[in-house]
């Protein structure tokens, strides 16, 4: 599916289709998370804050923007579900790091959904998921999801991976082992010599050399989003009523410190958002509401 060059140069219609899908996925996820809050006797709901892309504090004409969705509830201590669609030009230095960026014309578009959930009960796993479609001189999809339990359960890990494996296997039997290994490698904290969680899948630069490749990669990315929605709410419901101790909570807070370290030091999505004039609050919504470094 990958190609050395992209003959197609106008991806605006495909970007619009991807954006519509990401927004629809956001709506379904947020509705399911709010339903879980209702089951727990909470009336917590998402608040949605639109934003426009800026450069040095000034709006970028035709730079796009996004919507930050945020909920703080009884089950979801803090969950953000963001969708953004931005465009413009990379800085010369940042363009050198981006797939297919042309130093002489570093134009780009990017649309995607990004989700991070930090849970009130330490037995409920935290989670990260995102999928995205980017264009430079090339066009490609990326994304994935990974489970981040302060207190791991083998059953939860197995179910989470099984959902993503099923999504991968529909498209290519080589995808799951490749993308699982990529997640294991990516979601690793070198200075701590530990993984951020129990993994999942991660993929990037799934290139679209033509319309057929776009359709195939878009279908896979939709299945990745659906796989998350199929499995994660079930894990939340499985664990959210469990009793926990102060020791359990302290374990969660210490683990959250590691999570924050990864997102601030190594996460490429954080860097991309900061380098392209994204909304600071939306970018840093991945950080936990409370953490401990003692």
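-> sequence recovered:
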């Amino acid at each position: 599916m990958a190609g050395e060059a992209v003959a197609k140069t106008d991806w605006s219609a495909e970007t619009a289709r991807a954006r519509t899908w990401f927004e629809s996925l956001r709506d379904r996820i947020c509705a399911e998370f709010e339903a879980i809050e209702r089951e727990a006797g909470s009336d917590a709901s998402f608040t949605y804050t639109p934003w426009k892309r800026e450069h040095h504090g000034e709006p970028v004409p035709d730079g796009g923007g996004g919507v930050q969705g945020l909920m703080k509830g009884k089950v979801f201590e803090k969950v953000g579900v963001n969708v953004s669609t931005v465009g413009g030009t990379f800085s010369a230095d940042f363009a050198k790091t981006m797939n297919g960026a042309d130093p002489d014309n570093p134009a780009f578009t990017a649309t995607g959904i990004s989700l991070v959930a930090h849970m009130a009960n330490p037995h409920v796993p935290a989670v990260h998921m995102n999928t995205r479609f980017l264009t430079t001189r090339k066009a490609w999809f990326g994304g994935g999801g990974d489970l981040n339990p302060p207190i791991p359960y083998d059953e939860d890990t197995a179910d989470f991976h099984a959902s993503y494996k099923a999504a991968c296997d529909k498209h290519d039997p080589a995808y799951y082992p490749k993308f699982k290994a990529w997640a294991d490698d990516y979601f690793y904290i070198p200075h701590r010599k530990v993984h951020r969680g129990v993994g999942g899948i991660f993929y990037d630069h799934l290139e679209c050399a033509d319309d057929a490749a776009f359709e195939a990669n878009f279908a896979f990315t939709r299945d990745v989003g659906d796989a998350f929605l199929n499995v994660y709410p079930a894990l939340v419901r499985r664990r959210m009523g469990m009793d926990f101790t102060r020791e359990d909570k302290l374990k969660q807070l210490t683990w959250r410190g590691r999570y924050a370290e990864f997102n601030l030091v190594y996460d490429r999505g954080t860097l991309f958002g900061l380098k392209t004039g994204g909304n600071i609050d939306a970018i840093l919504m991945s950080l936990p509401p409370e953490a401990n470094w003692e």
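The longest strand covers residues 76-89.
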